[in-house]
Amino acid sequence: MPRRPRRPTTAVSPLPQRLGIDALHLTLPPVGDDSPPTVREHLIARLAAAGPGTVDRMLDEGAFVTADGTSLAADAPYAPGLHLWFHRVLAPEPPVPFPIEVLHRDARILIADKPHFLATTPRGAHITQTALARLRHDLDLPTLSPAHRLDRLTAGVLLLVIDPTARGAYQNLFRDRHVTKRYEALAAHRPALPLPRTVRSRIEKTPGIVAAREVPGEPNSESRIELLDHRGDMARYRLTPHTGRTHQLRVHMNALGLPILGDPYFPTLTDPAPHDFTRPLQLLARTLEFTDPITGTHHRFESRRTLQAWTDPEGWATGT
Q1: 96: Cα separation from own chain's centroid
Q2: How far is residue 1's CA from residue 88's CA, in Å, rounded to a whole number?
Q3: Which residue from 262, 287, 33 is spatially nearest to 152, judged by alpha carbons?
Q4: Among candidate residues 116, 180, 103, the one with its CA nearest the CA of residue 148
Q5: How far apart are CA 25 and CA 7, in angstroms?
Q6: I need a labelling partner for 155 at 20 to 30 A (CA). Which of 36, 65, 166, 262 fits?
Q7: In this structure, are residues 282 and 161 in contact, taking their beta carbons and an 8 Å threshold?
Q8: What is the pTM of this model?
Q9: Where are the domains of the chain?
Q10: What string of pLDDT tens digits covers the 320 residues of the chain?
Q11: HEC sequence for the chain
Q12: 101-318 sits in which CATH class?
């Protein structure tokens, strides 16, 4: 199915979410020289990526509805400005076999402890198997939205907003850097490397290339790296990002010669089986600390998860 069209803020979907996913919304454009006589013909052309016969099947099933919830008739004449909603046909997704723990919930926010391998929001091949979709569906919270994001491979503390009227206030905490985020990571122990240290560099993410990279130029990223503990050749590090570039902590650790264990991007791009959940990236968003912009209460939330290679090194080594 096509990429989700942008929804006007005044349009309210007559369709409920399905597995935590909103219905898609589209508006028929003004009449032009190439306007077809029926809505059906317009949809077949507009949704061509869905495959032959898909639009006709959806029309037969009453899948397209107008603003009042009425199913679109297969022979409906073209009507410029008509609003339609429908649920896309989703490809099956193998379930991520780990629960999401709720650390805190009140009338405005929800703090989740996200597992590894679960994306924060729907994107690409990960739609229903995302933290947002699962929490919306499982907790019956259709208005839930993320205040920030964690990488799919990173586990830990995630702030989501329940009350839509408060969404901007919590998102602005992250935009304005009024949130303290601390991570833990496992990597090689390098006794000769002076720590703690602050790493600054310029990181860029090129569309279509999976891994971000450091490039020459004015620094746009900053991370504090501290050694917490070590056992033989393995060490546990505290990482405190002061900016939020894509893959920032992973890039900075790799630049120090300390690629995080289980990282499929750094130092070498690998291609693990997409549904192999046995060797998670050893990176955990351990704590999230902020002053609530609505109540003024100081919050500090801590993940209850552990990093497998530290707590079960034998299981980590064997992938069990």
Answers
A1: 14
A2: 6
A3: 262
A4: 180
A5: 6
A6: 166
A7: no
A8: 0.90
A9: 24-86, 101-318
A10: 444 444 444 578 999 999 999 999 999 999 887 789 999 999 999 999 888 999 999 999 999 999 999 999 999 999 999 999 999 888 889 999 999 999 999 999 999 999 999 999 998 889 999 999 999 999 999 999 999 999 999 999 999 999 999 999 999 999 999 999 999 999 999 999 999 999 999 999 998 888 999 999 999 999 999 999 999 999 999 999 999 999 999 999 999 999 999 999 999 988 777 788 989 999 999 999 999 999 999 999 999 999 999 998 888 877 77
A11: CCCCCCCCCCCCCCCCCECCECCEEEECCCCCCCCCCEHHHHHHHHCHHHCCCHHHHHHHCCCCECCCCCECCCCCECCCCCEEEECCCCCCCCCCCCCCEEEEECCCEEEEEECCCCECCCECCECCCEHHHHHHHHHCCCCCEECCCCCCCCEEEEEEECCHHHHHHHHHHHHCCCCEEEEEEEEECCCCCCCCEEEEEEEECCCCCCCCEEECCCCCEEEEEEEEEEECCEEEEEEEECCCCCCHHHHHHHHCCCCCCCCCCCCCCCCCCCCCCCCCCCEEEEEEEEECCCCCCEEEEECCCCCHHHHCHHHHHHCC
A12: alpha beta
Q: Which residue has the tokens 């009338």?
A: 107
Beta partners for residue 188, in sequence order: 234
- Tokens representing 59 are 């029309």
Residue 265 tokens read as 């991007």
Residue with the two structure tokens 């935009």: 175
Residue 317: what are its φ and ψ, rounded to 5°?
A: -65, -35
Structure-token match 């009425």, residue found = 70
The radius of gyration of the chain from alpha carbons, rounded to an integer in Å, stands at 23
Tokens of 49: 């990526």
Tokens of 78: 């073209």
